[in-house]
Inverse folding.
């Protein structure tokens, strides 16, 4: 036989907001339950053309709205690290009767399913999507590499849109080299997506960087955000020292509008969502209500039945910001602030900085029981704060797992690069990955709750 | 400033999505309060940004038909259809007014 391509035989998973021909695509919503895509998203097609084997569609927050992968209609995603020896030995059960079941932590989101799939060795690589950090956030919590490519590099055709001006397909893998390989198969102009750039893209292999003395790393001070755990702060500082000691130039920089990024995102996202969700009316695909009195009432009933609170909330907020009396003050204002945020990055990169180094999340993964105490919007606001600005400016960014926290859970650091300079970004990320030697997850067999209690636990350690 | 019932009603009609309960309305209030932080930023002389790719030329291809003829596949996903038509309930009937609609807002 002939090898189909560079990914021949490689098992992959795809987030369930990518269209996959002949396979149900639900976006974890009742609105699309039973919807069988008539076509493959371009990125899915590209992977299949290279010989990749699609193992399944992964769970997410409903319509990719959320930062925990907890609000989908199939239920929350559990972080595989909840079942790792590293986490278990650090967690103290509060009582004998307390299940370890109630202790499990979230994956982060919204591409939690994809991150969990890669982290638990069920596939080699997975596709996620990234609008506000949805690939990098779960990557950090699940200890995997999460790449957000430059906006316009990879086709969004077939990716069910959330925010057309910020969405990108994301790549989740266990190491930076794998991410580069997958990127090589996916990047490039797609005539079916007019927001992809026409520049010729050449897949690349990452060099093994040994000399970082010509590198200039920027540490944006505003990313020392309120709520950043002291653990992550110290890890960030250690990483900066790592580069400094290796000869790189490490300087503190400023991105003054960082803290408005979340507010700006909130307005622009809900506005675009209000528009993008308008297509779900039950007429051509997806859920349709039995209400038959009039078109409008059928649409209203369908949408009432199909969308969860989070989605409905964003649609209503978006419509509010787009009202004639609010358009200038909210939507246009947010677009102006967006330019200021993008310009902050232009200024910093223009001053000679090659790569920015920041934390990816404020803390390690929290237990599900704790996460659900706050509502989705509050959580998203808190969790996206470090990742969102890259989407605002369309820049490439990557999460690299850095170390385990006090609780035995993964913590990652983020590198942000210049537009379309993925090769440089990934080269630096790979160098960093080699220095930190992030530990492999030691998965233990999940204890079964029947009478035959396992006396000893088998552990699968892939060393 | 609390959002008036008239505006809430208007939003329900525009979005064709309901607030469902007091929590839904409260969520909108908080969302607006949150968004108001934008007004702290001085944006005098700043142009709104539509796309990060604004400096590039949009790709235009030749106006040739390259795909299509997939009526059967597309109709497969529709619940109600007749031959090659999607079937909709009668149109041009406006959503009932607030007083006549089944909505949480009625109580306000």
């Amino acid at each position: 036989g002939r090898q189909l391509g560079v990914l021949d035989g490689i098992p992959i998973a795809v987030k369930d907001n990518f269209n996959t021909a002949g396979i149900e695509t639900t976006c974890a919503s009742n609105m699309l339950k039973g919807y069988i895509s008539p076509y493959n998203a371009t990125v899915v097609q590209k992977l299949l053309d290279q010989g990749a084997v699609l193992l399944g569609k992964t769970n997410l927050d409903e319509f990719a709205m959320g930062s925990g992968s907890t609000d989908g209609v199939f239920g929350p995603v559990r972080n595989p690290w909840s079942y790792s020896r590293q986490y278990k030995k650090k967690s103290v059960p509060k009582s004998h009767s307390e299940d370890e079941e109630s202790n499990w932590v979230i994956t982060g989101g919204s591409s939690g399913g994809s991150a969990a799939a890669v982290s638990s060795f069920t596939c080699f690589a997975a596709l996620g999507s990234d609008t506000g950090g949805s690939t990098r956030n779960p990557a950090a919590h699940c200890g995997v590499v999460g790449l957000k490519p430059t906006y316009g590099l990879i086709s969004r055709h077939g990716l069910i849109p959330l925010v057309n001006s910020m969405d990108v397909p994301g790549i989740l893998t266990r190491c930076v080299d794998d991410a580069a390989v997958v990127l090589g198969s996916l990047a490039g102009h797609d005539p079916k997506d007019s927001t992809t750039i026409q520049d010729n893209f050449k897949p690349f292999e990452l060099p093994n960087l040994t000399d970082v003395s010509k590198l200039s790393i920027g540490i944006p001070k505003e990313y020392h955000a309120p709520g950043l755990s002291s653990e992550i702060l110290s890890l960030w500082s250690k990483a900066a020292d790592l580069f400094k000691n290796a000869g790189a130039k490490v300087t503190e920089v400023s991105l003054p509008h960082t803290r408005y990024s979340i507010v700006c995102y909130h307005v622009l996202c809900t506005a675009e969502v209000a528009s993008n969700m308008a297509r779900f009316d039950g007429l051509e695909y997806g859920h349709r209500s039995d209400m038959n009195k009039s078109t409008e009432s059928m649409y209203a009933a369908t949408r009432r039945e199909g969308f969860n609170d989070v989605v409905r909330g964003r649609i209503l907020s978006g419509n509010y910001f787009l009202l004639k009396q609010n358009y200038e003050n909210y939507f246009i204002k947010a677009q102006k602030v967006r330019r200021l945020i993008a310009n902050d990055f232009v200024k910093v990169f223009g001053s000679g900085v090659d790569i920015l180094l920041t934390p990816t999340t404020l803390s390690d993964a929290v237990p599900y029981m704790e996460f659900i105490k706050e509502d989705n919007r509050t959580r998203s606001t808190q969790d996206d704060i470090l990742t969102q600005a890259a989407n605002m400016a369309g820049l490439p960014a990557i999460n690299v797992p850095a170390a385990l926290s006090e609780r035995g859970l993964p913590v990652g650091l983020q590198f942000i690069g210049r537009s379309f300079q993925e090769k440089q970004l990934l080269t630096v990320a790979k160098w960093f990955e080699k220095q930190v030697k992030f530990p492999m997850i030691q998965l233990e067999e999940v204890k079964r709750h029947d009478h035959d209690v396992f006396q000893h636990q088998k552990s699968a350690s892939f060393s | 400033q609390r959002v008036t019932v008239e505006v809430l009603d208007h939003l329900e009609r525009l979005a064709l999505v309901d607030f469902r309960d007091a929590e839904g309305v409260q969520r909108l209030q908080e969302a607006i309060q949150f968004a108001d932080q934008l007004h702290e930023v001085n944006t005098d002389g700043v142009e709104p940004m539509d796309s990060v790719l604004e400096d590039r030329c949009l790709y235009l291809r030749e106006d040739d038909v390259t795909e299509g003829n997939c009526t059967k596949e597309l109709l497969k996903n529709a619940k109600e259809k007749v031959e090659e038509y999607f079937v909709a309930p009668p149109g041009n009937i406006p959503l009932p007014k607030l007083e006549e609609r089944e909505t949480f807002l009625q109580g306000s």
Remarks:
- Confidence is low (pLDDT under 50) at residues 449-463 of chain A.
- Chain A has one domain: 11-91+105-436.
- Chain A touches chain B through 70 residues (CB under 8 Å).
